[in-house]
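Appendix B, Record 12. Input sequence as logged:
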Amino acid sequence: MRRNDLISAVSIAAALLVAILFTAISARFERTSDVLYFTLPLAASIVLIPAGTIRHFRLGQIRNARKNLPEFLRDLSEYTLYGVPLAEAVRMVSANDYGSLTPEVRRLARSIKAGIPVEEALESFGDGIGVRDIQRIGVILRKAGESGSNTSDVISMISHFSSQLELLNEERDAVMKNYSLILIISYAVFFIVIMIIDVRFFEAIRLSSTGSLAFHSSGASVLERIFDVGIYIEAVGIGITIGIVKDRNPLSGTLEMGFMILVSSIIIALVGAI
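Logged structural output:
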């Protein structure tokens, strides 16, 4: 957690530094409009991309833990099937590798080894990952251990249910990845269309607007700026939608949002649309 906080603090500091630097450069060359259409989006992307990367790895850890949960339960069920007490079974399976779930399993084993009753130790199972599905497994295991009968059958049933649930989650993730890709492609098409309008249409109006038509030129510039802002608004909207599609959390789309804003601001600057 401290590492994540440090990354966030560094990214915010870097964003502020970039914003101050580019604002000073824009003021020096009397291009104050660049602050709104390039500097601020660039600074925002510097904050969003690290935050989104942290969130991306966090989701990866959660998926890995869920994927390895059925295997952990199967191993636990096999030991309890032959009469091994639940506490001893947990200590024995803790030597195995369960990916992102391994720290939780070993923490549980250490608690039991320290003399904490297995029922009490299971109350905090999954707290380190912070996923309700895994925390519920801890509650069910605790109840099974307290009952003292058919523990192996209960664990085996939970393992089978978790396996089926994981298959459904994998199918859903595959579909949602395709949908997220479609959203990103739609944003790219939208961006290209706006860039063509900016470079061709509005530039033609400015070149042809002289004398009494100068008003139309200024109006075209205002409309061009509205289109540019619309690009960033679209990027934010697409990012939020991707986050909701991923795991029903808008923050899960911050990585894609940051990259779309970054690429858009750089291209807008390169083509001279700002």
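DSSP finds nine helices and no strands in the chain.
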